[in-house]
Amino acid sequence: MLKAILLLSILLISFHSANASHLAAADFKFTQFTTNTYQVELNLYRDCSGIGLPSSATIQVSSLSCGNSFSQSLTLNSSSYVNAIPISFTTCSSGTINGYEHMTYIGTITLPSTCSDWNFSYSSCCRNPYITNLVNPSTESLYVESTLDNTIPNNSPSYFVEPLYYGSIGNSFTVALGGTDPDGDSLSFRLENPLSSPGVPISFVAGLSINTPLVVAAGTTPSFSNTTGLFSCQLGQVNQIVVFDVIVDEYRNNTLIASHRRCLQILPISCCNTPSNLTSITPSNAFTTIQQDRIQYQPNQEVAFSMFFTDVDSNDIISLDTVQTSIKNTFPNAVINTQYNGLNQNELIVDVAIPTPSNTIIMIEVDDNSFLPRQYCFTLNETTITNTQDLNSYSPPIIWPNPSNGMIHINDQDIISFELFDRNGQLVFKKETNADFSLPDHLHGFYFYNLNTLKQSKRGKLLVY
Hints:
Largest sheet: 7 strands, antiparallel
Strand order of the largest sheet: 1-2-5-4-3-6-7
Helix content: under 10%
Oligomer: single chain
Shape: globular
Radius of gyration: 25 Å
């Protein structure tokens, strides 16, 4: 149930005053039309309490090696509101939480020559004075840039989500800062200080750094994946407006061909809603293995896995955001099924099957009553393992599907016994077999299992629905 009461401190409400344009985030995108002609898109995100943005934006285009430099005007093409939380709760409507407007500026640019170091850049002064993680933010500009080598055909990456994110104060936080590339180029992600102008970084306040650019819970540190771009942390119990940049490096045949700077903002808010969590992700067939943020598959074999999400708020409804989740866009023949664990809609099971996978990054987004969406990223990689026998020697035995509908498959023919225990440690089922089997119909819910084989023993959790 969407929480009707949102608690904001006086400090957070005061963020709405004394605004300039209050640009919060920005990034570039470009699409190649011909060898030297590109559609360039500048995305700007402004605080709804700040002044409006103009109908055009001027960017700088330059190449040092070719000695070219000129200005180009882009025209406002569209505007929309960031809807990570319901618009009615934000200052873009009648609410009190900082709301943001997304403005898209587009123009067609014909580059005058072929150069390997074209640079598109945009700068605007000044930043929000209430930014908490930068030194003297009101005196600094927002600066964003993207590079291009037009000696080769290329298009910019496509990002999973907009570069402006809400979090819940004091709770866990995950956001997908990465994306995929339409040309099949490899992407790598890294964090950097924001810039006020080319090559001029803005300092973080004492105690913060690019590795920890925001206040987190005591005893914890943020994590960031250079491979997927997933940023995670446990937010501290403080009001803060946080900005930092992520650099998206684009590689082709192990050669860096472009870099893209995304200016982003994180806004933790106080609310009565605890975000949902990914409790487990498990393979659903013997040809899929999962290692942290990597999902591996065997050549010419289907990728299949199950995800289990829970929410401590018993009245909340978790749902898969099928629009934001990137799997169907990348793999149109993928099958995604969702179901709730019995009548509990705060426990969501997501089953994914990708018949013809390829190496890429996928993102899954879940919503909590359309409030504070959370993203999870994984790389899909083809493994060098070529058959089930190799898989068994390479990894521990796998039970699938998990969650299970009562049918149990195990990728190990040397099974001695399978034992199932309830939450109180009581043995509820035992099977001595080396074949697939079904559980009794009355078994539903969470269980612990012991799997004994000739090679090893394995313990784990099993959800039966």
